[in-house]
Amino acid sequence: MTTLGHVLLGLLARAPASGYDLAQKLKGPVDFFWQARHSQIYPELARLEQDGYVVVQHVPQTERPDKKIYRITDAGTTVLKAWVIAPVEVPVVRDELVLKAYCLWLAHPAAAIELFRAHAHHHTELLARYQRNQGWLLEQWATEGRRIDSPWFGSIASIQRGIGYEQEYAAWCRWMIEQLEQAISD
Amino acid sequence: MTTLGHVLLGLLARAPASGYDLAQKLKGPVDFFWQARHSQIYPELARLEQDGYVVVQHVPQTERPDKKIYRITDAGTTVLKAWVIAPVEVPVVRDELVLKAYCLWLAHPAAAIELFRAHAHHHTELLARYQRNQGWLLEQWATEGRRIDSPWFGSIASIQRGIGYEQEYAAWCRWMIEQLEQAISD
DNA sequence: GTTTTATATGTAAGTATTGACATATGGTTC
DNA sequence: GAACCATATGTCAATACTTACATATAAAAC
């Protein structure tokens, strides 16, 4: 099973959904640390169905194109539960901006600074979005007595990482800008 | 040009090196945010040579297998300098551990906690390594009067990101462990 | 003496992901 | 009336990366 397969099972374990629904959730940074396009999602769903981890229900619609609702099966839940506690490798980080920072000694500081201003802005925006999301998630979780076996806890755990990540990334960008500004003024 | 091509040019802009040397630098987390295997590096070097961005010098050796030393050309330096200040997309983060955290509501806390202890350990170790490296790099940079056009600055900038990243990741793992411990004791 | 390790360079098959192509419905905007 | 957008599902080619295969030298470990 691919990681994307587990991503899809992880989402379907919370609620049934169509391929389109899943693609919407995975298309960008919402509350979650995985991204995928529909072109990868549809074939993966077909594989999950073949393997018996999900079942599909065809839903005809009149005002919109027909859709297919996917539901996780008992077999799917079993493999998902086993996978969650299985050891996992540390992900490889490949960040082109850090690579550019590594090569920054070749550039004019004034030309390079815009690069880091743009990324500082982006990560600050995303941080604010995650923080708003976190506030709402914490409220939802509280209504369920802050149980660790609630899906809300999973969302909070991942958004917590998103907040830390964006905070740190934005701080690094600001540090880079400082260094560059100092070099420009000298 | 691929990103790996720029990685290799970025390294060769500092000093000539063989494919093996480059593979050593890129094989794991040393001072840098890019990883690649020799199986990807050798073909990429051949492409860079074809494009005229590097030249190769065959060096026969008696006590070891012969090697090929690659040097960046003026054309290579030109494209590298242009690339450094060019805008770049925000990298997509795909982290299986965060995904597991998202699905953690499906697992027994006692079974899941080992996962986060292992990763907390790993990121703490890597952080210490980066911090030792940083101390040495800062000394080297100081001897050159902390010039921003020194390669040392590039190394420091990337290690700075590595330190922030590992610090934050380790902190998140510890937060996850806390949550899980609390759930176990309840 | 045999195995292992470091040096040194490659190829080939398979997987993961992206970007483009492809089609169809119905509502909204211009 | 035409163009565009959201919904909805798919395929295909290309790229990026990993894993395994493949070979050769010489020193060091056992």
Descriptive keywords:
186 residues, three-stranded antiparallel β-sheet, 3 strands, 7 helices, 2 domains, mainly alpha, Arc Repressor Mutant, subunit A, DNA-binding, homodimer
Structure overview:
The structure is a homodimer of 186-residue chains. Chain A has 186 residues and is mainly alpha-helical. Chain A folds into two domains: 3-84, Arc Repressor Mutant, subunit A; 96-185. Chain A is 64% helix and 8% strand. Chain A is built from seven helices and three strands, in the order αβααββαααα. Chain A has helices at 3-12, 19-26, 38-50, 74-84, 96-102, 109-143, 151-185; strands at 17-18, 54-59, 67-72. Chain A has a three-stranded antiparallel sheet with strand order 1-3-2. At the A-B interface, helix 1, helix 4, helix 5, helix 6 and helix 7 of A face helix 1, helix 4, helix 5, helix 6 and helix 7 of B. The first copy, chain A, binds a DNA duplex (30 and 30 nucleotides) through residues 2-4, 18-20, 23, 36-40, 42-43, 46, 61-68, 92.
